[in-house]
Amino acid sequence: MTKPKITLTIAGNDASGGAGIAADLKTFAEYGTFGIAALTVIATMDPNNNWSHGITPINPKVVKDQLVTATAGPGIDAFKTGMLPNVDIITVIANHIKEHQMTNFVADPVMVCKGEDEVLNPENAEALKDVLVPLATVATPNLFEAAQLAGLKTLTSVEDMKEAARIIHDNGAKTVVIKGGKALPGTKAIDLFFDGKEFTLFETDKIDAPSNHGAGCTFAAAITAGLAYGLTPKEAVAKAKEFVTAAIKTGFPFNQFISPVFHSGYRLSHHKAIIE
């Protein structure tokens, strides 16, 4: 039997199933890849305390051992990172990437939990900027994360996004896609892609889904799967934008706080188009 495309997520577990490795593995499956996961953190949410978050990091040695296991097989075609709870884990991952010369890397620089407005750990933001994101084939920050990575104030326009993308690219990331989403003014959900030479805007109509959960993870995982099939970063981002938009439209209320994006059935109608 021909080996399937193998995709790896290095991220946290979200017991709601909407984000983190759950969202990543579902996305990998919808794209038809064989998804594997290395767990970095367990994230919990307390429904009795206004959805407050708990963050329990995995021991860095255990993270390293998982990466050794994951990369001892027939080869990773593409991989991504998500929530990384401390500098030690970020460093372990960066060292493993360089040691094994891993390619097709999507860095989703998660810095906050949805519903929170503070960086999970300021030292993490620096480590992501200096150690991990420069290794990325595609970096996928949202507006807040892009501002942190670029050392800028709040991004409020496409021109701000362009400035941030240039800086992040100059710091080492091969390509950058900044997710404007619903945060930018106007009726369009705008993502900005930059490959070091030209900017491309990906636009869709905004969807009224104020509590959508897992869209960023799903978007990054879809880009990862696209890279595994040999798509260029720009092509992978275009397909991922289509994928996550469909997933947001079919999201559902999990509880009073979150509505996970849901992408069941996408592969049946779109998988052929993904790989052609």
Gross morphology: globular
CATH topology category name: UDP-N-acetylmuramoyl-L-alanine:D-glutamate ligase
Low-confidence stretches: none
CATH class equals Alpha Beta
> What do the pLDDT scores average to?
88
Could you spell the SSE succession in H and E letters?
EHEEHEHEHEHHEEEEHHEH
How far do the termini sit from each other?
A: 21 Å
CATH superfamily: Ribokinase
Describe this structure in words.
With 276 residues, this protein is α/β, with parallel strands linked by helices. It is 39% helix and 22% strand. The protein has one domain: UDP-N-acetylmuramoyl-L-alanine:D-glutamate ligase (3-Layer(aba) Sandwich), CATH 3.40.1190.20. The strands form two sheets. Strands 3-2-1-4-5-6-7-8-9 form a nine-stranded mixed sheet. The protein has a two-stranded parallel sheet with strand order 10-11. The radius of gyration is 17 Å and the shape is globular. The chain starts with 5 loop residues before the first strand and ends with a helix.
